[in-house]
Every structure is written in C-alpha cells, then in structure tokens.
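Objective 1b: paired records.
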Amino acid sequence: MRNVMRWKYAALLALTALAAGCSSTSKKELPPAELPDFTEEVQLETQWSRSIGDGQGDTYNMLVPAVDGDSIFAADVNGEVKAMNRLTGDVLWDKDLEVDVSGAVGAGEGLVLVGTLRGEVIALDAASGDEKWRARVTSEVLAPPVSNGDVVIVQTQDDRVIALEASTGQQRWVFDNTPAVLTLRGTGAPLVTSRLAIAGLSTGKVIALDTQRGLPVWEQRVAVPQGRSELDRIVDIDGGLHLSGNTIYVTTYQGRVAGLDLDSGRILWQREASSYVGVDEGLGNVFVSEASGTVESIDERSSSALWSNDALARRQLSAPTVFSSYVAVGDLEGYLHLLSQVDGRFVARERIDSDGLRARPLVVGDWLYAYGNGGKLVALTIR
C-alpha cells in the first residue's frame, strides 16, 4: 500500500510542482510569461496534418511519435496507434488497442512498441500493425520501450529495467532498483546499443547493463539529492538520455546536465541545471529546457553557457530539438518556437495545438514533426 500511495503522490506532484514552474520560494504563483514580439526571419510551412485520437489525454503523458524509415508512428492515450507516410501523411494503418497507453512510441527493427498504464508492453508489426505479442511487466510504462532487434528494453515507473525477447516478448532479465521516496510522474526513455542497456533513474543515477544478462557494467551519479524535505531532494532523470557518438547527454531535475562516456560512464563535463524534459546537442553545443522555462546553450568543451533565453519563463517547455540551424521548443499554449543556435534569439513561431505542445519535437532531416496535447500531429519544413 505504501508503494501505491507513493506513486499516486508522485503523479500529483508532477501536475502541481511542474505547473508552478518549480518556484517554491514565491508566495504567489506567477503566470506564464507573455510571448515577446519579434521579427520573423524564417517561416515554418505545414506539409500535412493528422489527428491522432485524443492525444496526450488529461494526465501528464509524454507520448512522443517515432520515425522508422519513411514511416511515422503515433499513439493516443486511449490506445489508438496510427502509422503514416512521414512525407505525405498518408495513413498506412490504424489500430485500436483498447488500452490506456502511457509510454509511446518505440519503433525500429520491424516493431512498433507501446507501454500501458496496466504494466504491459505491446509489440506491433511495423508494416501491418498486427499485434505480435504482449508482455506483462512490473508497473506502468511511462516511456517508450526501445529495441536493438535482439531485446526490447523497458523502464517501468518503479525504476526497474526489464529486457524482453524481441521476437516473443518473453522476459530475459529484470534489474531491480530502489526508487526515490518521491518522484516526478515519468521516466526517461532508456537507450539500447548492441551490448548495453542504459537508463536514467529517479535517484539521479545513470546505469548501464549488459543486454544479455542484465549485469551492471557501470553506474554514475549525475545529481546528489540536497535539501531538508523530500520535495527538495527530487533529482529525477525524466527527460530521457541522448546518445551522440560515444557521449551520453543527460539532465536531471534540481541537479545537473552532463556528458558521460558511453563505455565507462565517466563524467566528461557537467553543469548545474534543473530540467524534467531533456536535452539535445549539435555542433559541440548542448541545449537544455530548464524547469523555469529558460532555454540555455552550453559549450560542452568548457561547460560554460553560450547564451540563455528566459523569455519563455513558466511556459512549461518541451525538450529542445535541433532543427537545421535552430532550436525548436514547444510550450503549454501549443506554440512551437524556433531559436537561433548562435545567440538564442527568436526566429519563428507557429501555433500547433491550442491544448499545448508537451512532447519533444521530432526532427528527421529537413522535416520537423510536432505532436500536440490534443492529438494534432503536424509535419513542418522551413521556407
């Protein structure tokens, strides 16, 4: 019963602390910052738009679409999974799983993977949408499962990392972790390579496991819990991990943003930060959406800030995504903002979904895909 209450409190915490912009010292909650005026330097052009059921739903879901080849896959909170041609928007197949989806979508190696509130992982055939298998795991799945073709790696809300056989869904191994007393509602999507499964935990640690047996290869603490209250000591890694070359990029809530060596877990650089949505990188620079609403560019060679834009304060930003020469972020009112990678100035803005834009924008080549909270999926290019 204690665990049940902890997870219920964690869900409530996500909806209150995050909406407040994490400003515990303020006596009165400040409203989201007004959008600043600026002169548009580029234009975002909509190539196609599709409706994906009810989108993120009423709870704090982060149902990010996935691209595999020329197909894009998206799911809504009620179990509708749709495959589309990513260039034309033509629907390839549409399935109703009739379950509450909470972790979506993982795609690759011929599979489309979703996780559910009931603690299931469902694998669909990427070409037809036919169900290949379902597997029961230990608790709800709030992040997309990932696969290397041999195993499917799942991280559950209770901080367990689970490997399933990619062909059958049979459990290969489970790695147990003791979660923090209080957590934000969410888990970051794990990474999987040919030999390593890597996950960020609610305790502020990143752990790498051998994919064959689930044995630890390395463990690295990115953030140290600090403060007197459990609320102050939350250091969740909820924004997922980003892998580029041999570097893992990670950020924690009330902790740090850092680069880790893939093979050893050694910290290559680090800087104080607080984010629950994640990071992106490009050309030696790292971009982070802070919990406060500030977007920051960091030089990973020196770990110093190159620029900081606080004009979107308290607007509950999505994770940043590098798009051409720009950085794209969404906000609570459904606006997609483009910022210059050079100095952080605004260069374009487009409203995607009036219900908000929480999921990280997805970029493939010259195309950006934005999935709004209300279920609107839009493909955009720069004109």
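Objective 1b, second protein:
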Amino acid sequence: MSGLVACDAPLAESFDLALVDLDGVAYKGHESIPRAAEGLTGARERGMRLVFVTNNASREPESVAAQLSGLGIATEPAEVMTAAQAAAAVLTTRLAPGAKVLVVGGAGLVTAVQQAGFVVVTSADDAPDAVAQGFAPELAWPQLAEAAYAVQRGAWHVASNLDLSLPTPRGFAPGNGALVGAVQAATGVTPDSAGKPAPTMFRLAVARAGAKRPLVIGDRLDTDLAGARAADYPGLLVLTGVSSARDAVLARPAERPHLIGGDLVSLLEPHPAPAPGPEGWWTTREAAARVVDGRLEVRGWTGVLAARVDVVRSACAAAWDAVDRGNAVDPGSVPDLAVHDG
C-alpha cells in the first residue's frame, strides 16, 4: 500500500522495535531535539525496543551511544547500527576473511571492517580487494585519490551511504555521497552502497533484535522512508529534520511514509488515517484536504500541533490519490505546512 495507514493504538504498543534515525530525529548536530527523549523513553516504557540506525560511518557505536545518553536517551552500544557495520556486512558477501580492504573513512569504518575479519590497508599499492568508503570530516584529496587508484585497478568499491548532504548547525555540507561521487567521476565505476535507502541496515538490525513488528523512523524521505519501502517495513516520518511536510505531500510513491508525526512523542499516540469523503475531501478528524483542477486545498489549520499534523496527513492523502489516478498536482499550490513554529 502506498498511502498512509491507521494505527488505533499508540505506535509504541503496536510495534516491537523502532529503527530510529539519528540526526534530525533524535538530535540535531550536538543539540537535542525537543521532546525526543520524552518520546523514546516513553516508548521503551511501553515495551518498544530501540535500535538507532545511522548512515554515519565515521563514529563508533560507543561514541553514538554516549552522545544519546548525554541527551537523556539512555543507549547501549549494542543498540546502535551504523552504515560502517552495514558496509562491512556487504563486504562479507564477496570477500573471504583476510582479504585486504582500503578504508577511506573514519575510525568507525576501520573498526567495523577489522571486526568483519578483513585486513585494513591505506594505499592502492597494497593491492586491496575492495575499497570501503565512508564519511569523515578529515578526509582530503590524498585519500580520495588512493580510492580512485584502487578502483581503477579492479578493487570493489563499497560505499557506506550515498547521502549527498550532511546537516550541520551551520547548514548542509557535502555528505559521503558527494565524496563518493568524486571517486566515481574519476573511475567511471558505480559503487555498491550499504546505507539507506538500501534495506541492508534495517534488515541487519531486525535480525539482530529478533523483531517481528519493526517500525522505521526517520526525517528524510530519500533515505529513511525510501529505505523503509525497500525493506517492506512501515515507516514513520517525523517533521523535525530534513524533509518538510510539503516534501511529504509531493513525495514520490517509493519515498512515501506510512505514518506521519510531528516529533517522537507521536510514538505514544494513535495515528488516524485520512478517509475519503464527499466532494473529493480527505478528512483526518477536523482537518481536510482535496485536489481540484490540479490545485491542493486544505482546511482545519490551527495553532495546535496535532491539528496541523492532521492537515498534513489529509494533504498527503489527497495529493497522493490524485497522482495515483494519473492527475498532476501543481507544486505551487502546496503551502509550507510547517507544523512547528519558529
């Protein structure tokens, strides 16, 4: 199903495992996101287990767990799944233990590759069998050049993720995908990717936890929610990070969330689904939206967070239904629909 779904009970009671993205969901840079700790702590109290799944490959799980714990979200390293760990798992599908891997990335990627049984090298002249590339802020031209030389000589190129941008307190900076793109441009070789939106990390985390009813939680349509669709897991979009409510309304089918919440406290709440009604209106409690002649109309917008989120849900349902029926929706008719003030 490509539309929003209903959940009559709080999400924390309906799913046994939350696969939680980090930046834009649990925190933003080094700062906490309002109500994130409240939502995650409350979810745990209701029996939901948590695994934090991140496309960041530069940090050790211990470092991530320490940061979360410092923000009031008590976390053990075993509750963190990084793109570095996923990349190492991908390497095991083609390489035998003891194979040489040129690591271009941070300490987290080095550790993950070593723990998978591979020998880490730093030069293309060491004849590596593969190049594992992940983001690290200290990466520079010499490391990218070594990766390019190795790939040109036949090494298998595996990227931890292909995120083009990286959110920072100052704005968006080039992400790992931008740096991988430099190597790809130099070699003409398209790398394999372990990170979201590939389903690898989600499936590894679910298998490790032995979960039966996982829920993906993220702030990016193109990685978190596309990954949820790829893994065939329900996905919750929280409107505290990169993708906006307007982005959700205009989302491609492969990136649509199954559920939408204002923030992580939405884990403690039921989630109504919009219902079709007369004159083309899609209604969620007191909120409604429809598409007329390609233009989106909404009603029910107030200053209350829950009501604003209901408008977003209705707007998504109306727009998605129109698109799925073969009709265009004018992006210029879709307002910002910002659910948070400021």
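The mean pLDDT is 95. The longest strand covers residues 49-54.
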